[in-house]
Design a protein that fits this description.
Order of helices and strands: HHHHHHEEHEHEHEEHEEHHEHEHEE
Helix content: 25-40%
Strand order of the largest sheet: 6-5-4-3-7-10-12-11
Strand content: 15-25%
Shape: globular
Structural class: alpha/beta
Distance between the termini: 74 Å
Number of strands: 12
Bound molecules: S-adenosylmethionine
Length: 328
C-alpha cells in the first residue's frame, strides 16, 4: 500500500511518463508529459512543482499513462488535452481544426501594427478600439486569429470564413468562450465566396471608388456588408509533395484541408489575393501568413496596379512568415 502510494507520486509518474515519451521519440517529451499530467490533475505547472510528492489515485495514474500511450503513438498533445494557448488566450482544439501555431502570432502583430500606422497617418490616436472597422479572417479554423484580434479591438466587427463546417463549430465555441461571439459572423465559404457559388472576383479596379455597389458584391454576407478595412488569412500552404516529410503528429492527425493547398502549397494565394483586392476598401490592409518557401511565388501576386506598401516579416526562425500590403 505504501509502495503503491510512493509509486503514484506526481514526481514519479512524471518521470515515468517522460521516459516513455522519450523512448517513443516524441518531440519536447518533457513538456508533453507535464502537460498530460497537469491535464489529468486539473492543475497548473506552479502547483506541480510545489507539490511533487502529492499522491495520485490509481485511476488518475491509469488515465495519465493512457494519455502517454496515445501521445507515444502519435496523437498531438493538444488533441489529448483539448486546448492550446495562442496570444495569451486558451483555445479549444479538436482534430477538426489546425492547432494554432506560435508563428501565427506574427499575423496578429503585423495586423495591429499596420492598423496603428493607418490611424497615425489619419491623425487619430494610434491605439484605437477599432471603432467602425470591418475585418475578415479567411480560413479561420479554431478562430484564433479573429478572436485574438477581436480581443485587441473591442469595437471592431468580423467575418470569419472556413470551408469546413466542423471547424466553424469549434471556432464558434471559442468565440463564445472569449465573449466575442456577438462581433464575429462565422460563415461557411470558399475563401470569401458562399460554398457552391462560382466566385467571380470583381475586377480589382472596380472597387477603387468604394462605391456602394461594390459593397453588395461582397461575399458570403449578402446584406449591407461593407468592404473590409483588414483581411487576414493563414491559408493552407503545405505542398502535398511535402506530406511524406511531415511529422506524423501533423500528417496523420491534423485536417488535410487545413494543411494542403495543392502539390506545391502556394496554390490558394492567387485566388485569395484576387478576392482580397476585390473586397478591401482603398487603403485596406491584407495580412497573409506564408509557408516556409512561399514568398517567391506569392509576393509577385501583389501587383503594383492594386497594391502598395508591401512588407515581409520574418518569424523567430528567420523564415519570411508574414506578407502584408495595402490596397491602392
Ligand atoms: C492553416 S489553417 C488556419 C487556421 C487558423 N486560422 C489558424 O491560423 O490556426 C487553414 C484553414 O483554412 C480552411 N480552408 C481551406 N481551404 C479553404 C477555402 N478554400 N476557403 C475557406 N477556408 C479554407 C481550413 O479548413 C483551415 O481551417
Amino acid at each position: 500500500m505504501i509502495e503503491l502510494s510512493l509509486d503514484n507520486s506526481a514526481r514519479s509518474l512524471l518521470k515515468r511518463g517522460i521516459a516513455q515519451l522519450r523512448q517513443a521519440d516524441v518531440p519536447s517529451f518533457t513538456l508533453a508529459a507535464e502537460l498530460l499530467l497537469l491535464h489529468v490533475l486539473g492543475r497548473n505547472r506552479t502547483w506541480l512543482y510545489a507539490h511533487p510528492e502529492e499522491i495520485l489515485s490509481d485511476a488518475e495514474a491509469q488515465r495519465f499513462f493512457g494519455l502517454v500511450a496515445r501521445r507515444a503513438a502519435g496523437e498531438p498533445t493538444q488533441h489529448l488535452t483539448g486546448k492550446q494557448e495562442f496570444w495569451g488566450l486558451e483555445f479549444e482544439v479538436t482534430p477538426d481544426v489546425l492547432i494554432p501555431r506560435p508563428e501565427t502570432e506574427h499575423v496578429i502583430e503585423v495586423a495591429l501594427d499596420r492598423l496603428a500606422l493607418r490611424e497615425r497617418r489619419a491623425g487619430r490616436p494610434q491605439r484605437s478600439a477599432g471603432e467602425g472597422l470591418q475585418i475578415a479572417d479567411i480560413g479561420t479554423g479554431s478562430g484564433c486569429i479573429a478572436i485574438a484580434l477581436a480581443k485587441e479591438l473591442p469595437a471592431a466587427n468580423f467575418l470569419a470564413t472556413d470551408i469546413s463546417p466542423a471547424a466553424l463549430a469549434v471556432a464558434k465555441r471559442n468565440a463564445a468562450r472569449h465573449a466575442v461571439a456577438d462581433r464575429i459572423d462565422f460563415r461557411e465559404a470558399n475563401l470569401l465566396s458562399p460554398v457552391g457559388a462560382q466566385h467571380v472576383a470583381p475586377q480589382p479596379g472596380k472597387i477603387a471608388n468604394n462605391a456602394p455597389s461594390a459593397v453588395h458584391e461582397s461575399p458570403v454576407t449578402s446584406h449591407q456588408s461593407p468592404p473590409f478595412d483588414l483581411i487576414v488569412s493563414n491559408p493552407p500552404y503545405i505542398g502535398r509533395r511535402e506530406a511524406p516529410s511531415l511529422p506524423r503528429e501533423v500528417r496523420d492527425h491534423e485536417p488535410h484541408a487545413a494543411l494542403f493547398a495543392g502539390d506545391e502549397g502556394y496554390e490558394l494565394y492567387a485566388n485569395l489575393i484576387a478576392q482580397s483586392a476585390a473586397h478591401l476598401k482603398p487603403a485596406g490592409i491584407l495580412v497573409l501568413e506564408l509557408g516556409h518557401n512561399s514568398l517567391p511565388a506569392v509576393q509577385p501576386l501583389l501587383d503594383a496596379a492594386n497594391w502598395t506598401n508591401v512588407g515581409v516579416t520574418n518569424d523567430l526562425a528567420g523564415i519570411p512568415r508574414v506578407l502584408a500590403a495595402e490596397r491602392l
